[in-house]
């Protein structure tokens, strides 16, 4: 269609962008001759960002939002291990409670920092849907302190050590140095949380003469859906005192392709 027959206009209602035919005779009269706008109008409520940053900002906000959600649950989980197991285990020393109060303090700070960063990027906590996966683990392990330490702190939190360096690298590669530095600090504190889980798991096993590693494998298999998945952050886990014997035996061997296909066909 020839541009000559059209008037371009931007409506005042939100979302209204339209092209309408010119009234008969306008072109001939030259009263409203078409002039190409330097920049077509858009409704005022649209937030316009640089296309080079639009996708990365959205994905960074999604990542920060997911982490803020996990940290929020981590606060509850830290207090829960104290409140739920203190009465059941009167033998626990003060050092146990000191450790988990310190963890709760860290998690609250992590959550607050992530929420503040979301706001700096123009979003807010609650802008996206959240899940309650961590609390499901709290419920699954509500009757066993050993299971709680094993699954919550030595599987989930240890997995956090595996994935966080990659997340930090993504923020850094997208030029978000502020978030990358914040996540690096959070990562270093998370190492101490895995260390606390390991410390108290082994403390309880030593005290009761339990066979530590086989018990750990049994508890993870019974209370954690799925298997542990590499790649592992061997250095980060080692910094928490977690050597490979704590996780490599829990990796499910890859099924041969033929067997996997047969299983899928039978499902
Ligand atoms: Fe945290
Ligand atoms: Fe943590």
TrEMBL record:
InterPro entries: DUF455 (IPR007402), Ferritin-like_SF (IPR009078), UCP012318 (IPR011197). Pfam families: DUF455. Residues 1-46 are annotated as: Disordered. It comes from the Eukaryota. This is Rieske domain-containing protein. It comes from Thecamonas trahens ATCC 50062. The lineage of its organism: Eukaryota, Apusozoa, Apusomonadida, Apusomonadidae, Thecamonas.
């Amino acid at each position: 269609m020839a541009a000559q027959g059209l008037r371009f206009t931007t409506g005042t209602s939100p979302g209204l962008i339209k092209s309408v035919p010119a009234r008969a005779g306008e072109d001939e009269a030259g009263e409203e001759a078409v002039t190409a706008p330097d920049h077509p109008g858009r409704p005022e409520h649209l937030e316009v960002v640089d296309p080079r940053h639009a996708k990365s900002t959205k994905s960074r906000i999604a990542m920060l939002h997911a982490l803020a959600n996990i940290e929020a649950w981590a606060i509850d989980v830290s207090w829960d291990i104290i409140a739920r197991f203190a009465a059941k285990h009167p033998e626990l020393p003060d050092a146990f409670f000191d450790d988990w109060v310190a963890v709760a303090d860290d998690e609250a700070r992590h959550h607050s920092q992530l929420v503040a960063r979301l706001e700096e990027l123009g979003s807010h906590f609650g802008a996206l849907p959240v899940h309650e996966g961590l609390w499901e683990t709290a419920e699954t392990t509500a009757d066993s302190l050993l299971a709680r330490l094993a699954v919550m702190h030595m599987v989930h939190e240890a997995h956090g050590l595996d994935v966080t360096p990659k997340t930090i690298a993504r923020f850094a590669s997208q030029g978000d140095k502020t978030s990358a530095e914040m996540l690096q600090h959070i990562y270093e504190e998370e190492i101490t949380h895995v260390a606390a889980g390991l410390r108290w798991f082994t403390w309880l096993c030593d005290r009761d003469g339990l066979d530590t590693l086989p018990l750990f494998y049994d508890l993870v298999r019974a209370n954690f859906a799925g298997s542990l998945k590499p790649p592992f952050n061997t250095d980060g886990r080692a910094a928490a005192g977690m050597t490979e014997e704590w996780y490599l035996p829990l990796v499910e061997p890859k099924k041969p392709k033929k067997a996997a296909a047969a299983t899928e066909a039978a499902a």
